Amino acid sequence: CDVDQTFIVILAGESMEQMQKFYCDNFNLEKASVMDSRIRAISRVFGKPENTKYKSAAIPIKDQSLIEIDELPEGSERRLGESGYLLPGISIVSFLYYQSETDNLDAYRCNLPNLKSKKCTVVHGQNQEIIELIHQ
């Protein structure tokens, strides 16, 4: 199967401020404007009315796509999963990384046909997400 590019990857967590700070500080991205938005999937999961609004922001990624950040309502908890398995929802995402080459001992070579031999590293986000960086 061919590998496609994601247009928008969605991250949901407890604190809009903390999520934006993590991505902006670690990946040299610019903080995005926060707006109130209806997000039906969150409302459905938390048993809220469909027209409930949540804080949402979209951080642009150089030459790629967007990271949509949604703040979950008060009382939300960390996702539960089974040891050795990915968590439910979007758990892992790969981004091209233009900042620097890596000397990280944990780096490995990418096996995708169009990215053969590029170095990759993994970063763990504060909301249990796994971020694979493909160094350019």
TrEMBL record:
Protein's UniProt name: Glyoxalase-like domain-containing protein
Species whose genome carries this gene: marine metagenome
